[in-house]
Amino acid sequence: MDFSLASLIDLTRLTLRDPRRGARGLIGLHLPMSVRWTLFVLIVVLSAISAHLTLGMMSQAERAAIPAQMPGPFGLAVVQGAIMFMGAFFAFQLGRALGGTGNFADALLLVVWLQTILLALQVLQLLVHAMTPVLGEGGAAFLGEIIGVVGLGLTFWLLTAFIAELHRFASMGRVFLGVIATILAIGVVLSVLIASILQAGMIASV
């Protein structure tokens, strides 16, 4: 497989249709670790840029629902990188705790691929916000919420399937429960990280 747009679209279709088969094909590429880390950094940067642009295009009503002091592009990249790294680490450790045989390198690759798919939804959200003059604030906000719900559902579904395939589990039931616990744990860590970034920004601005 190459990294052409056509190949990425084909892999995305396969992943959405049969997540475990898509994960199996991705793992089967046996990409060097240097390539995996390069893709990791690339997706972190692109996701942070997309998130920053989306925040900048939000309406006043939407901004009221988020903290007044949000991290800048660099802070968003740090948060995004932390999310992906912890996701890969916990995907690896969760499977091992349940008796799986997967490794961290493949967990990292699968998390990068998951975020790549979610990045496409982020770009779609960005386009929706750009169409606010046509859709109206209410319409754009509604479509944005739908995309967000779809993204959340995809995260649980794909991550569960990816971990199951990574560790060669036949059933995804226990994995799904583990994914919920993992996401809650990541949420706690991130809340502390974001609070630290915001506090550092406020101190620097004094």
The portion of residues assigned to helices is over 70%
The averaged pLDDT comes out at 83
| Inertia-based shape | globular
Q: Report how far the terminal alpha carbons are from each other.
A: 51 Å
Number of helices: 8
What percentage of amino acids are in beta strands? under 5%
Q: Structural class of the secondary elements? A: mainly alpha
- Largest sheet properties: none
Oligomer category: single chain
Which H/E pattern describes the elements?
HHHHHHHH
Weakly predicted, low-confidence segments: 202-206
Number of strands: 0
Question: How large, in whole angstroms, is the Cα Rg?
Answer: 18 Å
Highlighted features:
206 residues, mainly alpha
Question: How would you describe what is shown here?
Answer:
The protein is an all-alpha fold. Helices cover 83% and strands 0% of the residues. The termini are far apart.
Write the layout of secondary structure elements.
Layout lengths: L4 H13 L1 H9 L5 H24 L3 H4 L9 H25 L6 H27 L1 H35 L6 H33 L1
Helix pairs in contact: 1-2, 2-7, 3-5, 3-6, 5-6, 5-7, 5-8, 6-7, 7-8
